[in-house]
């Protein structure tokens, strides 16, 4: 019973004390738990239960922690903050113990997990998590998978993508409601219920007792912690404090949910059990604490504007007062209270209320009997109250995750969904008030998308919880708060209210969670059906939509520019798209079949009612208010889209859903107003409203909006046009476009509403609109596939497009469930039918192309549709671009050489319901307009353009194509002159009207017009008058009058009393302003018909008289088969011919009349004026043509010049077509080199006082250091095991060697024995242009004063070459004197080698005095400073004594070495190709050598130490050297790097150098090199080989050419070195050194040659630069012999018959054996003490492979999956922007503050350490490569492309990406050739922040 005693001790009756049971009871905790478990397992467990309750009461008492927390807030200093933490820890420990029932908690967890039926994954993630979505497997569009489930499932060939979660989500694997089972991963495929054993009762028994208390405790904490924020102080920080305290508790719950299904079901029981909740939270007990807690809860409810149903009484009293004072929509829900009670305190509603009162009342559907939706909440379970607090605390991430983790439990899912719906209104209220609405929105959607994507669940809550009512009500409620009075139309009396787009609610898109939920549930058929059947809901919804009708009204600024350009239009367009259009598309997707007709009728009916209300509210009669436009007419668009659906899919009779004529007239006004305003905006008439109005016009037609905006508008206009009187419609159009006054035959007119400069573009706008209206078939009969094809062709014709931009540009239904999913099969199949794929091209010089699609030839030929292009272009330039491409196609295919006109395209047939539309083409009004315009164009009146003519002809052609019926010729002949007194044309058919002659026209003209003068003359002669009388009256026409007349007729027809409504039409708007000259009437003689005008036009266009000849006279066939390809493409002439042919085909009369007109050979026309005018135009045309040709010629010439310049100046990658920019001239007769200065343009030599310099770019480079000695490429690590260690890089090896030498030898001597600059060496490159140094200084001055932002920093000396714009940062002075004088020095002298050696020594011994202070020497000094400053200090200081001159010496000759080595690498690592490479032409090595030599001669080497002595003289044995301190030893000659010696020797000589001295130095050094090769070889082989060689060589020692036989020399070396301890230390090391191959003479020869080759290559390059000799080209195997003979090492008499032997190049200056033994002696004396190191130093790796970047994996996903979760080594967090270095594979954080050191971020630091300032990084999350060069950086592009050859920057599309090897090669090439600066153009400073 010990346990029981312990329990009593713990949970006994003593009063609560602030401290917990002593921690020593840990063991007892377990015992207690075990005891209680036992007690509870008994059948009668009441005692146990009570005991447990008492214990929990003690442990979980909520008072302590929070009182402590409160103290902590008040007196944090007092240390009270520590208390709660400890207490809670303890409480959690107790809970864990109790749950485990005495066992270990971990074992308990494992045990519970064993019973997890893991059917669902349910992994919950938060924002920024990387997840996958597979459209092939998804049923719901929101389906998502975690990476693990995705990779475990099989999705090959599916349409999937990776995405970054924005709001968070959960994995749907295993949920067959959301995805197809075929896509489940291996873990969740198993139908698990069968094989999971039943959970033993006692396992979870304790949990059932403990958890209710635990959760209640949590709720108490939440209640305690919440304080209603004061009005002005946001209380986020207090809330966060509470949440931080609760972190462990919530985490504990979260861990419980992760134990699997068994534990989840216990939690579900606990959370949903109403009895538990009631017992614990009612606050009725005697427990003071519980009471207080309950009170806080009630206060929180009240302050949230919610009532607790018990308080009904109080509530009832408040109602009337509140109801009357607040909101507009009273009687909401048909009940007593109003929506806005809770808001009556807020000021938001006050301003709008006076206008709001008159709104109609809105009845909600009867199902909501009381208005509880907005403000009653009753909590019946823990779950409900938990959600309430989650909302109150604004959705803390942890709570959200806990609530979502529970979702795999089905019972919980239903309960939680209902709870969520119950709190829905409250959630949105909280959201509206929240300060962090963005975060909160994301968290809300995170939850709701999991609940509402499931159709079954959505249906259930719709039925049981009135989800739809709630959503619509809440939406209305949200928008109510930001309504303002509409100013559209009648500003004073308007009763309409619209949302105010400037409000935060709209501006910040706060409503989106709501709308997105609404769209989500409407995507379920069963839910949408309920919505469409519920009349009340539809009324409310239309009411909601009308809030957006007419929002964001634009008023045209007529006087000065608007001060502040408001950007509210973004909000307006987003709101209409999201809140109106997307739900509309959602509803439409369920109206696809005949059975759904009823739904459409409902929507259309309520839509029309709402529209009628709207017209009444804005007091609209018949004229829209001038100078205002709104782009937002969602009600019109709902109506239009449902009409379209009804006809297309549901076979509804259109007329049955159309209103009367009057309503149609009203309906067409506003959409038409928008079309006219678009034309005005493009005509710059709205320019004073700022750029934003252009932005609106663009957004309106932009691909994401067009099918919810412009398309329905045009369709609605098409419907109106098909049902209204055509004359009325046409005249309305011209009136809206304000060009009525222009349509007169008179040559001058006055436009009262439009400035002259806008007339032309407005006329073009009106005609273009008519063409679009009449030829667009998007909703009038095209199938979905045809639409898709037309859209695609239009986009491709404007420009070649990438696959992704096409997907983006093709308007798809914005609702994801709507059928055409981008990426669906029809998309791909249509694409392959209309376009060809152009693989990405790589242009040298950078710009990376993407894979593009371009239209097939037959598409240009038959499908190019200019109308569609015009409709879909956002920028006007795209129309031009499409026409240019069309022109190019016609030229290329030889179809038409000139400038073609837009082709006429046949249309798909009209759907029968819309046949009326074609009446527009056959109405007199249109014909009069066409006639007038043709006449005006022919007479050259002002303000007409080719575009106008083009559209006029297009309309005529449309009319001919769609003429109603073949008219009989008899009828036509009857119509004599009598019939056409009253009107211009006899009938309304275009075919017959075309041939109708019009004789006289009466026009009103200003008195100043030329017509008036002529007229007055005519009136004197009687005969002209009489002829006038005979012909009947002249035609008069006024569009406006016509339109008024028709309007009156229609109105009278529709209702007799409507007459009172129509305002009298005497508005002054149409009468001319008095200031203008008076109008008089004149009569013009015309005598033309449309046909005759067309024929004359043909003459005018072709510039010849009688150019038209009817083609059928020659070839009667033409009339039989009318489709003639030659007429398909062409210019205006072709168009006229095509029209005349069609006219002739349509009627015999027309054919006859055309022939007649052509027969009357046009006599000279009497009025001379016209011919003069024609002559003038012809002259003008001719002049223009000539000017055009001249311009073309000039341009062509300019282009070719530019091309050749670009080739010479800019070419970085292609040596072939390069014209060398000769730095020096090669004619021997010139004595000095002449340079051109690219700034002042003068030529001349470089002199001491005015030196010329080469434009150079100095950059530090570590490319050489990246060479490795093994062939297999280094791969980028993609698992933890793979790592890259830089031990085998060239830089590392050289570093080790130098430090080894410095350990044992004298520092100054070490610094002459090696080269540095493998890392951080300075590379010098030039574009080859020269300039005077003083010119350069003034150029830099001007750059400094230039305010323009350059991509480079002038202060750091950077500039671009003034000629070729190549980036540079210094100027290298050219040494005076010429290259040619070197010819004198190159003559071979016959001196013996001994003499030369002496000369060399003397020359070196002369101290090099620095030349006197001239400008040149100053420049030499300053460039030397530049070179030093190019690299960091650590890359130049290697000496142990800082700043020693030896250091500078080493640095300088290493610069020469670096440049030679790099040039060798650019040539591919060998000199086989020979020739003078590009590097050669642009090389500045010659000038660089002069600068270096000048400086190096300042440091004369002590003749004692000069290695030259040791190489060429036998030194007497001086034992003194041995006796010195070990430190003071000199580096033995055999340890010297021969190439370094070469550079030292040459740079120590006075310049310019003589060729024979050069050769002498090379010969001497070759003997040393060869000896080194022999020594290295001897060390490499084993003991037996050595003794064998020693023996064979000794035999031949006395032969004549013993000094030139490698066997003899080798044996001598071995015998000399055997005297020391070099070979003794082998023992263990032996195996490592031995090469497995037995050495044959051939392999030894090869080894020796390979050892010497690098030296020969560098020497040859040097010779090439110093003496200008060409390099011979050769095969790889003969490289050694060719180079050695080129260097003069091979004796000239050398025979080439027998195999080449390297030793024959030797030319010993002193007896070989003596000097060798002298060299070996040094080694022996060193190896006495350090045999190991002595050996290591002898073996030099000389065969470096070319440098490469790391090899990347084929698929990007492998990189991404490994690196995007990899943690930073500094802070162990996952970096936000991880990156990896492509040179060495280091993982770095881009912009990561964790890794910042002295204000340098990690990438910049790494670029300095790894690449001496050049870094190449792959950004893991963006797939893009970024280059850092010094203080600048640029985005290089991506080397990973998708299947369509496109980059996916930032992985936005998330499609699989594959390596593009060509791109990677280009990148590597730019790295190796150091051309990043020249090729990439967009550089910016990084301020060390990357």
Model description:
By secondary structure, the chain is α+β, with helices and mostly antiparallel strands. A 6-stranded antiparallel β-sheet has the order 22-21-23-24-25-28. The protein has a 3-stranded antiparallel β-sheet with strand order 3-2-4. The chain has a 3-stranded antiparallel β-sheet with strand order 17-16-20. Helix 34 (756-775) packs across helix 39 (866-872), helix 41 runs antiparallel to helix 42 (946-961) and helix 69 (1641-1667) crosses helix 70 (1679-1686).
Quick summary of this structure?
The chain is an alpha+beta fold and 1890 residues long. It is built from 76 helices and 28 strands.
Tell me the Rg in angstroms. 46 Å
Count of helical regions: 76
Strand content: 5-15%
Write down the overall mean pLDDT. Answer: 78
Which runs of at least 5 residues are low in confidence (pLDDT < 50)?
A: 1-26, 62-84, 310-370, 815-823, 966-982, 1014-1033, 1055-1077, 1163-1173, 1209-1230, 1379-1385, 1518-1527, 1627-1636
Rounded to the nearest angstrom, the distance between the terminal CA atoms is 68 Å
Widest beta sheet: strand line-up? 22-21-23-24-25-28
Task: Write down how many β-strands occur, each being a DSSP E stretch of 2 or more residues.
Answer: 28
Biggest sheet features: 6 strands, antiparallel
Helix percent reads 40-55%
Derived from helix and strand composition plus strand pairing, the structural class reads alpha+beta
Based on Cα principal axes, name the global outline: flat
Itemize the secondary structure elements and their pairings.
Layout: H1 2-11, H2 26-41, H3 46-59, H4 63-74, H5 82-100, H6 105-113, E1 124-125, E2 130-134, E3 145-146, H7 147-152, E4 160-164, E5 169-170, H8 205-225, H9 236-257, H10 261-272, H11 274-281, H12 288-303, H13 312-325, H14 353-356, H15 372-375, H16 382-392, H17 397-405, H18 410-422, H19 424-433, H20 437-452, H21 455-465, H22 467-480, E6 483-485, E7 497-499, H23 504-507, H24 512-522, H25 525-533, H26 535-546, E8 554-555, H27 568-588, H28 597-617, E9 628-629, H29 634-648, H30 661-682, H31 691-701, H32 710-723, H33 726-736, H34 756-775, H35 784-798, H36 803-809, H37 825-834, E10 835-838, E11 852-855, H38 857-863, H39 866-872, H40 876-892, H41 924-938, H42 946-961, H43 969-974, H44 990-993, E12 998-1006, H45 1010-1020, H46 1022-1030, H47 1039-1054, E13 1079-1088, H48 1090-1102, H49 1117-1120, H50 1132-1146, H51 1148-1159, H52 1168-1210, E14 1235-1236, E15 1243-1244, E16 1252-1261, H53 1290-1304, H54 1307-1313, E17 1321-1332, H55 1333-1345, E18 1359-1360, E19 1367-1368, E20 1370-1373, H56 1382-1386, H57 1393-1405, H58 1415-1430, H59 1445-1466, H60 1478-1481, ...
Helix pairs in contact: 1-2, 2-3, 2-5, 3-8, 4-5, 5-6, 5-8, 5-9, 8-9, 8-10, 8-16, 9-17, 17-20, 19-20, 19-22, 20-24, 22-26, 24-27, 26-28, 27-29, 28-29, 29-32, 30-32, 30-34, 33-47, 34-39, 34-42, 35-37, 35-39, 41-42, 41-48, 42-50, 48-50, 50-51, 57-65, 58-61, 59-61, 59-64, 59-69, 64-65, ...
